[in-house]
Amino acid sequence: MEYPGTVTELTASLRQGGYLADRGLATTLLVSLSLRRPVLLEGEVGVGKTEVAKVLAAVFGRKLIRLQCYEGITTSQALYEWDYSRQMLQIRALSQAEAADERSVDKLFGPKFLLERPLLEAVRQGDRAVLLIDEIDRADDEFEAFLLEVLSDFQISIPELGTVTADSRPVVILTSNRTRELHDALRRRCLYHWIGYPTAAREAEIVAVREPAAAGQLTRKVVAAVHRLREMDLAKPPGVAETIDWVRTLGVLGENELTPDAASDTLGAVIKDRDDLDLVRENLAEIISGG
Amino acid sequence: MGDPFTDVLVGFAAELRAAGLTVGTGDVLTYFAAMTPLDPTDLVDLYWAGRATLVSRREDGGVYDEVFRRYFLGADAPAKNQLVLRAQSVAEAEAELVMPGTEPGPGENQERPFLGWMASGADTLKHRSFTACTPAELAALRRIMATMRLTPPRRRTRRTRPAAAGPEPDMRATIRESMRMHGEPPGQLFFRQRKTKLRPLILILDVSGSMADYSRHLLQFAHTARHAAARVEVFCFGTRLTRITRELAHQRVDAALEEAARTVVDWDGGTRIGESLDTFVRKWARGGLCRGAVVVICSDGLDRGDPEVLATAMERLARLCHRIVWLNPHKGDDRDFRPSTLGMIVAAPHIDLLLSGHDLASLEELAGLLPVLN
User: Fold this and answer.
1) Are B158 and A72 within 8 A, CB to CB?
2) 3-class SS shares of chain A: helix, strand, coil, % to 5
3) Strand partners, B308
4) What does the alpha-carbon distance between residue A250 and residue A266 come to, in Å, rounded to a whole number?
5) Which of A195, A205, B106, B115 could make an S-S bridge to A43, C-beta 3.0–4.6 Å?
């Protein structure tokens, strides 16, 4: 399926995939799709940064290739690696005459023994893929510099095989939780969008899309309560994912009403910190009553 | 040139630059390219395309909004005469700008108050400049501090490097060697060893009234440290916490000090250690800024806030970082120093190393102890 040409079409397509994008995000994505520039998404935890890439891939029939970054990630985990054990077995199997033959040695460093990692796979797939580089802020500085190189040219050099170049550029989504400042060089190569918490009405809509079985009345109450929680001075304010979780949890328990008891029992779905729990329990009645 | 649309967008980029954003020519070209699939007469499209291509930081969003409003929607907006904008799109854009889905919160502006139009509001706050250092004093300090290196302790990383002997065999090198011998088992095994890396260093400096005498050279010290170690974050606090890492990134000491002086608007105000550390834990440390890091706090522990808040913040901070070093100038050279202020007593259980930091000699002591703080 081709990517759409207008913001309205894109918003509608994303909605079909269960993702409600606001005007700003949709515009940024559309520009990214038409210019084939990577998008850097930043925002609070649990507002659906990763989800954007998943939905894009699902709705437009692209393959989602995910590179989860973490401290100490190396190029062999991101690009490619030689399958050493298979090479070793192959060497063992070679006869004396074969081992002397140049070609059989060349074969050892051929495509058959190459393990593709996400970045190489994305370059090979080109437009058939959506590349998600998740939590880029967790990787080291050096990795960021290396990524910059790949993102600007979309070509990867493998000394033994030659250069692999993308025939068309994949859509690239980068996410960051801002645990450290990213380099300006990387920011400049990307379109930038900040995803904030949605308004109450929009959040209720999001829950309705993701959890169609939930009662509208209950959803509105939960969303109102979550918004009050965000106003409180919590160590870990709940994101949209937590709102959906809470509605789902209440649904599983068969609750139709956000009573103090039901809220208290299911608080673990939204509040993920002990100190926060204590604070919230003290003010629970006020939070769920809407007062 | 001559095309009004081009003039307007180029003019808009110039305005943004004047307001302090970094907007390169390449960014402007991207902005033009971005408008191709969009509707150039639609202000909302103009707004979001520019926001995605010209802004690369959340903190800059506020400046962008302000300039956009002035340039495209103001009473004497330069763009109004040159562009035919759809009437309903103006109304739409007004609505979007009053409450964009991504409007930065009020706290965000306080974070970087060096934006042009905020300076007037800052006048009411006490604004003591430490650029008032005598040149001779500064030069002497700088000479001495330039010779001091703050080296945080090292930690092992996941990455490895080739080594003569080590716990992990180097498969790649071993196979290569084997290939050279046409598949014969290699004569020797190669090994790899884990690399080590400097831990991040985080300085949290008290610049309130009771610490004002020390803060001047502490900031000088912070600046030197910023250029010595791999990753250094610097925060200042008095009544509230301000991150000054970016301001200190300037190469010249004077420029950096001037920047920092403009940012720390609560200069010489009261001290709220507990709340400031609490802000640090919530806003920065929870996000992972200080995981595995050495946190150096410079303060006398004279807290005007609730000791309970300080105790909780310190406890959380101790769990989040690797080591906490506290510099208290009141300790002086007293070896048997016992903390007397309530703040220090409350914080004491979570401190790994307590030093004085009241003169250059004690800062040297810190520089000596830091690398072995494991």
Assistant:
1) yes
2) 55, 15, 30
3) none
4) 7
5) A195
Interchain pair B38, A198: CB under 8 A: no
Report CB contact under 8 Å: A190, B175: no
Phi, psi of B128, rounded to the nearest 5 degrees: -90, 125
- Tell me the three state secondary structure of residue B59: helix
Alpha-helical segments (H) within B36-86: 43-54, 61-68, 78-82
Q: Round to whole Å and give the CA distance between B67 and B64.
A: 5
Comparing CA positions, the residue from B45, B33, B27, B28 lying closest to residue B83 is: B45
- Reported pTM: 0.66
Q: Is A210 helix (H, G, I), strand (E, B) or coil?
A: helix
**Nearest Cβ partner for A91 among B51, B55, B178:** B178
* Dihedral sign for Cα atoms in the order A29, A32, A36, A41: negative
Cα distance between residue A35 and residue B34, in whole Å: 7
Answer for the pair B289, B233: CB distance below 8 angstroms, yes or no. Answer: yes
Q: If pLDDT is split at 50, 70 and 90, which confidence band does B6 have?
A: confident
Contact at 8 Å (CB) between B317 and B280?
Answer: yes
The residue behind tokens 């507002």 is A47
CATH 3.40.50.410 fits B131-151+199-372, yes or no: yes
Contacts of A71 in chain B (CB under 8 A): 157-158
Beta-carbon separation of B61 and A194 below 8 A: yes
Count the alpha carbons within 13 Å of A119 in the hemisphere toward its beta carbon: 29
- Higher-confidence residue of A45 and B363: namely A45
Contact indicator for A188, A221 with CB cutoff of 8 Å = no
Q: Which two tokens stand for residue B247?
A: 């301001």
The helix (run of H) or strand (run of E) holding residue A116 is strand A114-116
Across the interface, of A71, A192, A235, the residue whose CB is closest to B55 is A192
Tens digit of each residue's pLDDT (9 = 90 or more) over B248-271: 766 555 666 566 666 665 555 567
